[in-house]
Amino acid sequence: MKTKIVTSIYSDLHGTELGGRPSRGGHYRYSLRTLLKMTDADFVCYTSENELESLKTFFYTENNISEERLVFKTFDLRNFSLTNKINRIKNIEETKHSDRCVEIQYCKFIWSLLELNIGDYENIFWFDSGLSHSGLFPPKYMNNIGYWEQNYETTLLNNNFLQNLIKFTGDKIVLCTKENVNNFWSGTVPNEYYFEHCMERHIIGGFFGGLKSSMENYCNLFLDYTNKLLDNEPRLYHEENIMTLMYYNHIDLHQPLFFDIWWHEEDKVPGIDLHEYTKTRKSFYKIIEELNV
User: Fold this and answer.
1) Residue 260 and residue 279 in contact, taking contact as beta carbons nearer than 8 Å
2) Span 284-289, mean pLDDT?
3) pTM, whole model, 2 decimals?
4) Cα–Cα distance measured from residue 237 to residue 190, given in angstroms and rounded to the nearest whole number
5) How many domains, the chain?
């Protein structure tokens, strides 16, 4: 089954009216280089005109990635279908200091829809380009040679993981759901948007997807909910808040992967013995580890 993975790299947005994480250029590039070890998939990466040529140099010239396996496309985050609604609500000065870009969050679904009918693919997944890093994966699964590799190259994101993920997904949408009561992570959208309000779990937007038909339905549903919130609420909600709403309102559409905490046993958190703590709470990386078996 042919698979397409959609992602993006916009590493120069911090301090602008779009907002974004600072100093992520190397992180995103080396992490995406690791994701490309899923060689059973082709990749499409959305980016800005400013970054396009340097990304091509890094991947095509310096790392010998085929232009057929990794296609770059430019997209203007300042001018697309949701721009006017977002700007009506957005606090520009706060956004300049934010490490999150809501435009990228919403465009995950717009870009996935754009890619649905380009090429002969049966599955389409979204993966955050920065997913592979040592904050999520313990040292035993990281490459121990070189600074970038130690921090951003995991052995767990491979074809075995991808094929098992596809089998696990079936005809639904696979996504990651984090425990949100004892290990609280995020609030949610107003109660009235829920058929039955629940905050026990929080959906993570790091990767999700499935068959083309399932992904088309899912992305269109996301945009329906997003437009309702943009039209009726005075604040911007992260894509994960909207995905959580969708999970509870349409639970039969989903094939969830469950975890409790981000930390792994080799992390350092003041006051917590993570070697003991992780024995009773499932770390995020365990999802990926289990799908390697």
Assistant:
1) no
2) 98
3) 0.97
4) 10
5) 1
